[in-house]
């Protein structure tokens, strides 16, 4: 377990630092009307998202110009993800893949069984054939995810929360799916400050579960603060 991850988890609940196995079969209860954190978390999201958009406006404008000059395709890509309560939404990113990315990936995995096995296990590829050269830099620095600040403002996402997943990935969460579905997915989270792709998918699920079970405003602020060096140093980014 990476140090930042271990320290943060241990601070809030020492017994979870060793990642105990998931236990019990539970079903998400749709009776929960308010996402984890409620009004306090939503107020923090709106305040910091607006501030972020203002401060990052020059960088966002520069990225828009560079991307349009180097690629004639759509600027943004909205992938369908699952949010609070199982609601589907479009998670926005600067487009970092070729236009026909789904087809390219399907053909690549068909030709490379070992890569297909890795994709099925982690939903990640180190050398993703869909990613353009310039976009690889944006992904490494997580700059492609800046448009998700709009998802935060619309209430589909939070600044901090579980990593947004597609519907098929909920199978990987097993009994922890109910924890994922009780929160808004996050622009950042424990996974992002814990090595990202250097962690296993099971560790990612357990981190999401831990976050939901132990949320408080100070945890969110600490994760946001720790996200900055994690992004700058590109820890676990592929």
Automatic annotation (TrEMBL):
Transmembrane segments: 46-67
GO MF, one annotated term: phosphotransferase activity, for other substituted phosphate groups
Domain (Bacterial sugar transferase): residue spans on this chain: 41-232
Main location class: membrane
Keyword entries, A-Z: Cell membrane, Exopolysaccharide synthesis, Membrane, Transferase, Transmembrane, Transmembrane helix
Keyword Transmembrane helix: yes
Superkingdom of the source species: Bacteria
Protein's recorded name: Sugar transferase
UniProt source species: Paracoccus haeundaensis
């Amino acid at each position: 377990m990476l140090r930042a991850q271990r320290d943060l988890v241990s601070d809030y609940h020492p017994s979870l630092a060793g990642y105990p196995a998931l236990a019990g079969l539970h079903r998400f209860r749709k009776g929960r009307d308010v996402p984890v954190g409620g009004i306090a978390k939503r107020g923090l999201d709106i305040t910091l998202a607006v501030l972020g958009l203002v401060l990052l406006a020059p960088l966002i404008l520069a990225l828009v110009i560079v991307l349009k000059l180097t690629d004639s395709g759509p600027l943004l890509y909205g992938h369908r993800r699952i949010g609070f309560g199982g609601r589907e939404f479009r998670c926005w990113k600067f487009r970092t893949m070729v236009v026909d990315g789904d087809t390219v990936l399907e053909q690549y995995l068909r030709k490379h069984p070992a890569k297909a096995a890795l994709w099925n296990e982690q939903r990640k590829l180190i050398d993703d054939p869909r990613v353009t050269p310039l976009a690889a830099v944006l992904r490494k620095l997580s700059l492609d995810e800046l448009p998700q600040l709009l998802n935060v403002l619309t209430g589909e996402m939070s600044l901090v929360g579980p990593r947004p997943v597609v519907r098929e990935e909920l199978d990987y969460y097993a009994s922890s799916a109910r924890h994922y579905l009780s929160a808004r997915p996050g622009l950042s989270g424990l996974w992002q400050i814990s090595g990202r792709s250097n962690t296993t998918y099971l560790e990612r699920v357990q981190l999401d579960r831990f976050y939901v079970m132990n949320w408080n405003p100070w945890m969110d602020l600490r994760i946001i603060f720790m996200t900055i060096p994690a992004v700058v140093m590109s820890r676990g980014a592929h």
